[in-house]
Design goal:
The protein has about 350 residues and is of the alpha+beta class. The protein is about 25% helix and about 15% strand. It is built from ten helices and twelve strands. Strand 9 and strand 10 form a beta hairpin.
Length: about 350
Amino acid sequence: MTRFSHLAACGLVLLQPLAAKCDLAFQQPLVAASDLEFQHPLAAACALSDPDSLCSSTRRDLTPEQAQRELGPLLSINSSVFGPRDPRWLDATQRYQLYAVPDIQMVVQPRLESDIPKIIEYANSNSVPFMVVNRGHSLTATLGNFAGIQIDMSVLTDITIQPDGKTAWFQGGTYDHQVMVELWELDYVATTGSCSCVGMMGPGLGGGHGRYQGLYGLISDNLVNLNVVLANGTAIRVNETTNAELFWGMQGAGHNFGIVTSFELKIYPREVESWYYKNYMFTQDKHELLFEEMNKFQNNGTTPKLMAANYGLYTMNTTVSETEVSRRSDKVPLPTGPGPSDLK
């Protein structure tokens, strides 16, 4: 956690030095997709193989139909470029919630990993911002300022277990429920987020808390290789020996540096067959004692290894106390204990 806390503070500072030090020689064909939501305020001008076919200035009036004609032929078979009139639009642009909704002007859905650099180069050559989406769970306020192309990676979800059974390759569009189920059926588990509907690399590039972290650490602790496409469309391999500083930076601040198109992650034999959970309810007069006991239980980060998760929720429940609920509705402050970790 020390490394992760440092990354939160210095991720943006590291962006330019790390990008400059990247070894741009990509060593192996990429296999896959993208992850969470990477957005870059693109300014201009990565030339395509046919630079005369596209302008190198901002095209504010670029339509989905124009992109279909210009970008479509450059992409692999079964890739798609579409706009709001397409029947796939609502599913492709649906979000987890309506906070800071981005202005999506068109959706590009690549069928192969090799399509991703071409899409980015096209966006760059037209100075059109792009955003890469897996499951649409981003909650950053800046997302509401985005207007441009959404790169939808939902069809890129392959999982390939390596012959030694110690790691697997995951395409960037994989998500927690898919990974949990597919690995479980093959007697494996991996570090994932706790919510089944969330993409793998969304939490993974920020550290990645999950149910197995007591046993195996965070998602980022288990990364072996990352296939990354930089903001200029260059594809590179990132690991402990190749682009090592970038690898360090992406294990906690990875959303700042590029698109993870695929990744190799450690996997483990399935050992814990079932999980037990229980809900407890405490009235507000127990807050101080509750937080004191929780702090003892957490013991400065040394929670028992098999404690998969513990969290709380403040709610108004009339079956417990109608008096306190009515007082809250009248906007009269409720008494609360001054617990050391009181979340109110």
